[in-house]
Amino acid sequence: MKSAEIRKKFLDYFASKGHQVVASSSLVPHDDPTLLFTNAGMNQFKDVFLGFDKRPYTRATTSQKCVRAGGKHNDLENVGYTARHHTFFEMLGNFSFGDYFKRDAIQYAWELLTEVFKLPRDKLYVTVYAEDDEAYDIWTKAVGLASERVIRIGDNKGARYASDNFWMMGDTGPCGPCTEIFYDHGAEIPGGLPGTPEEDGDRYIEIWNNVFMQFNRDEAGVMHPLPKPSVDTGMGLERISAVLQHVHSNYEIDLMQALVKAAARETNCSDMESPSLRVLADHIRACSFLIADGVIPGNEGRGYVLRRIIRRAIRHGYKLGARAAFFHRMVNDLVVEMGDAYPELKDGQQRVTEVLKQEEDRFFATIEHGMAILESDLAENSGKVFNGETAFKLHDTYGFPLDLTADICRERGVSVDTAAFDSAMARQKEQARAAGKFKMATNLDYSGPTTTFHGYESLEAKGNVL
Ligand code: ATP
Ligand code: MG
Ligand code: MG
Ligand code: MG
Fold it and tell me: What biological processes does GO assign it (predicted)?
């Protein structure tokens, strides 16, 4: 089953259960200063959960564009390293606004997976929030799942491993306990069950999260009950496609393979297993969708996150041998794959291509020199820490964002002295201030809508890109 068909089957299933099919919202949450990019299907319904907004329906279903490359949910550093993470992905979801709650949500999820998608029950495991006896009982009694397949997980404060069955959109906003469904990709793949120290492997892959929205967390961390208990779910289209297409990695599904092939074509790479091709396939989606939604590469906020993703992509192309702009030529392949489901991509194709090409030309002018400096520093200094002053020079003179330098170093098992980078940055700002200079905004020729994000001031200076 192709991913386009899986997307449709999901929406059709929930439509048949009385859910209104709602279009994806923009990746840029214009009216939510707490959010960098749309990171989940529920974002566009935040005010409905909070009781501030009313819709003519109490059940909805969406396929939502998401980007997780900053803020609370950030997977940029996972891309190229795990089988299951993208910066851009599609989240399939069903929502109840004070309508059904735990029992129906769980039963819908189970019916869709085992009867519509026909997944074998013995490949599925679920987790529930440790204290949520109600969810535990629904799984073991109403659904009839064996108790060894239902794992209780706490909020894991301070635990070594990551599983966490209390979902939050960000530091504030709607949140609640959740139950998650995992698929066992087989004993030959390293990884352990959720809740064990080995869970970070890619054997048991989380495919679907069902959140029982019950609280609004305020800035002081206090939980206020929501007006009505609600449901918010999210299933990664790429992850369920991998399961249904009998492949292990998200990057092996039809949609992503078309982009991996495009990356190989544009970089003349014959090693189809190269992680760089996967990174390029991922990044062309994030960059194109962000530009189509009005973000342009820049030096701060959202624009800087976009610039960092583009430069990481260019560096991977450079690693494969590209010495001139190539990345923008993958846009057409993306439009062929996803333009029908997301018409804004088709409409914006020409502008997306131009913006990428300009950004590529700009970085290709300095990357060679910058890479030479980086390589010679790595060779000279065989220690485990990369010089922070050099990292700053690469940033300041050659346009290497700190996270790009760190990413290259990580491939060699080397970390970057970010404290020294920060002091070099602070010193330069002080000098500039003393000299009474003002930094000019570097704007590309661009006539479409622009976007500004004020939530995270100076991402780069804080070094929280690592
Ligand atoms: P993981 O633990 O694998 O990082 P998550 O717990 O952070 O996933 P949720 O916030 O629960 O993910 O999001 C709901 C669903 O969205 C996940 O169950 C998964 O199917 C999908 N998903 C989340 N992050 C990504 C990503 N970076 N790329 C692709 N799919 C994702
Ligand atoms: Mg995650
Ligand atoms: Mg998880
Ligand atoms: Mg999850």
Answer: alanyl-tRNA aminoacylation; negative regulation of DNA-templated transcription
